[in-house]
Each structure stands twice: as C-alpha cells, then as structure tokens.
Here is the input.
Amino acid sequence: MYSFQSRIRYSEIGLDGRLTLESLLDYYQDCSTFHSEDIGLGVEYLKEKHMVWVLSSWQIVVERYPGLCENVIISTAPYEFKGFVGYRNFWMETESGERVSYANSIWSLMDLDKMTPAKPPEEMLTGYALAPKLPMDYAPRKIVIPEGGIEQEKIQIKMHHLDTNGHVNNGQYVRIAAEYLPKNFQIRQMRAEYKKPAVLDDNICALVASSEDQTLYTISLNGEDGRPYSIIEFMGGHSK
Here is the structure.
C-alpha cells in the first residue's frame, strides 16, 4: 500500500465548494505515479525498458466530496497481476478515517518496440507488493453504449489534453465527457473504458445517451470514423 496526504485546494473545487470528480481522478492518478516513482518503477524506468502502462478502465465510487481546505489521505494498492494486466485499487479518506471515495482500475503493460502486450519483468512483480482486494461492488470493465444517443459538436485535441506519452490523458476524457452532464448533476459513480488513444489534432465526436430517469448518462467519445476512443458512464442524480 502507498499513501500521501493533501489538502483540498481552491483550484480543485467546483461551484459548490467541493472537490470535483476530475480533481479526485487526478489525485488517484498522481498517487499511482508517486508510488511507481518512489519504488524506482516510474517514468524513467519505463522509458529505459521501452514499456508503458496503459489504463483500460476506471470505476470510481464517491460517498462524499470533501470541501475546501479539508485534509485528506489518498492511498493505492495493486492487488493482482494476470499476464500483462495489472489491477489496482484506490481510496481517499479524511484524517478521522472516513472513506469518502474508493476505486478500481485495470491496466495493461505494453512493449513500445513491438506494440504488443508484455508481461511485467520480475523486478516489477517484486516492487509492487500486492495487497488484499478492496471490498466493493466491482462493475464489469466493458460499458454498453445505449441506443438513441445524440451526437454533439466536434472537439479538436489540443496540446493541453496530452500527457508525456503524447496521448490524451485519461482524466481529460472524463473532463470532456462531464461537460455534457446537466447542471447540478451529482456524480456518485463514474466508469470509464478506454479503447484507443487520441492524439494531437484528432477530432472527438461525443455521443450522449441518458436513462429515462436521467440518473445514468453514457458518453461515447468517438473518432471521425465512429469508433470510440473512450466510453464514460456517470451514475448519480440531480442535487438541489
């Protein structure tokens, strides 16, 4: 297990004065990055090995969004390796031990020379000490795209969308998709399935579908060929 402490910043809150889902996702991604860097298996290690971890899916559950200046502890732990696939949990707690959010993520290790999946080397298996799987209701990795979605205007990928791999950062897809949610929609669970990476100057065409009671929104972020880069599902309801 790996943890770090933080304090909710003004730049991380929304109109309601509470942490946004996108900022929560950033905390989780930063936590896994800090973990890898601190055990010597970070960005430079992967560059030397010509490898990269590619995120396949997210499932983030939110019990409560912390408020401005609230002190929090962010934790992560890998719980399984299966071939080239790695599984990792995350959670955020307050100083008093209240668990305000928890998550599951699935990653694939890729060989950049062959552009094929790769099994983790021994030092990686040893470095990432496995922990027990977090108790939660695990959703399927794949997200079904409902029929009847409404197509939105195209969005062109800019430099600020990209990460060090030259691809759109995982969190940016969620930020883009969240823009299509109704005002005051309170997200209680977010699922994301990543299909293929978008790069600079690609155009994303969002297809937005919702359930009849408007408690579930599914946004497929498609390329111009109609194939999805990512599919994001938001579950929640309208806050007062």
Notes: The mean pLDDT is 94.
